[in-house]
Amino acid sequence: MAIDAKTLVKCSVSNCHYWGEQNVCKADTIMIEIDRHADVKLNEEYGEETFMNNHRDVAEQSSATCCLTFKPKK
């Protein structure tokens, strides 16, 4: 799948490695999962491969989701 343009992702979690000025996420890939899968242990080297396995879930509202891309700033 070819992607022509990068979508602007806003994030207020300023202690994330990928957080940028004006709350812009600088990550190349954004992984969002439903909360019931939030305990899955993924690191950024392998996360994309697992995420791209085409599983699908349904969230009723945004509060039922979480960002798996988060990585604390060092």
From TrEMBL:
Q: Where in the numbering of this chain does the DUF1540 domain appear?
A: 9-70
Could you identify this protein by its name? DUF1540 domain-containing protein
- A Pfam match is DUF1540
InterPro entries named among the record's database cross-references: DUF1540
Domain of life where this protein originates: Bacteria
